[in-house]
Amino acid sequence: MTEQVSRMPADADVTRADSLAREIYAGVANKWALLVINTLEDRTLRFNELRTAVDGISHKMLTQTLRGLERDGVVDRTVYATVPPRVDYRLTEAGRALRDTVNGMCAWTRRYLGEIEAARHRYDTRD
Amino acid sequence: MTEQVSRMPADADVTRADSLAREIYAGVANKWALLVINTLEDRTLRFNELRTAVDGISHKMLTQTLRGLERDGVVDRTVYATVPPRVDYRLTEAGRALRDTVNGMCAWTRRYLGEIEAARHRYDTRD
DNA sequence: CTGCATCCCCGGCGATACTG
DNA sequence: CAGTATCGCCGGGGATGCAG
User: Could you tell me which residue ranges the HTH hxlR-type domain spans (chains A, B) (predicted)?
Assistant: First the structure.
């Protein structure tokens, strides 16, 4: 009996975990999040330092991206009660682990840059 | 003299390569592209098989994503002149290399699923 | 079955202005 | 300096229909 009633919740948990993973994956798999993670590397940066370093990102998108990463425990946010205020951002342990995989994507881009360019030219001039 | 005239183009090339890398990075760093790459793995799949497997992706987005990946030489597209038509998609060598790094992100999600969930709860119930 | 075009709407994102 | 809120637009992307 216990086996029967416990089966359904177990399956439901698997489904929930899957959809959660999907959601996390989708949240992290976006341009700005990955660029921010890449930029942070091992450094501790302030809001405007990040804003300058990421280049192309707007004030709003940076805030939004940082909130998401902070919520997921990827970046750590430290507020200093000074005036003017100062806020430091750095990667958490989970964030550094993620950064390692993100670096792999960067390496891939560099490694295949030439091939991709060639493939594009072939594709664009086909026929 | 040759050194002087060759300097400017060299710098320009670096800049161009950087922006190209950025563009490729941005193109690949999106939810649907990564999910398609993950789904393809080592298999060869037809359009509708992919459509079903990726779940949540629309007809239009799948077409669009596949075109982009095909153009960048990440996926290989094979058309059979049969009726009804049949089109097979598979990862190229570059695509498989990219998949390896993408798998790293999946592994990361699984590894930190619990921590992320906890971090979210902490964030959402702070104060 | 696969792919392209069209329409249309919702929401992401930039710009701007205002608090602490 | 850092963050929040509001507004407005442009475009991503879903739905649908048609072609090969």
Answer: 17-117
Q: How far apart are CA B22 and CA A106, in angstroms?
A: 9
Residue B102 belongs to what domain range? 11-125
CB contact under 8 A, B94 and A73: no
Q: Residue A99 sits in a domain of what CATH number?
A: 1.10.10.10
**Number of domains observed in the structure of chain A:** 1
Residue B51 within any structural domain of the chain:
yes
Q: Which residues of A touch B113 (CB under 8 A)?
A: 17, 20-21, 24
B1 within a domain of the structure (yes/no)? no
pTM, two decimals, is: 0.88
Chain segment B38-60, per-residue pLDDT in tens? 999 999 999 999 999 998 999 99
